Amino acid sequence: MVIHKASSRGGADHGWLKTFHTFSFSEYYDPQRMNFGTLRVLNDDSIAAGAGFGRHPHRDMEIITIPLAGQVIHQDSEGNRGTISRGEIQVMSAGTGIFHSEFADPKEVTQLLQIWVYPKIFGVKPIYDQKKFPLEQRQNRFQLITSPDGRENSLPINQDAFFSLNEMSEGREFHYSPHMATNGVYVFVISGAVEINGQSLQSRDGMGIEESGRIQIRSLTHSELLVMEVPMHLPHRP
Question: What would the pLDDT profile of 93-109 be if each residue is shown by its tens digit?
Answer without folding.
Answer: 999 999 999 999 999 99
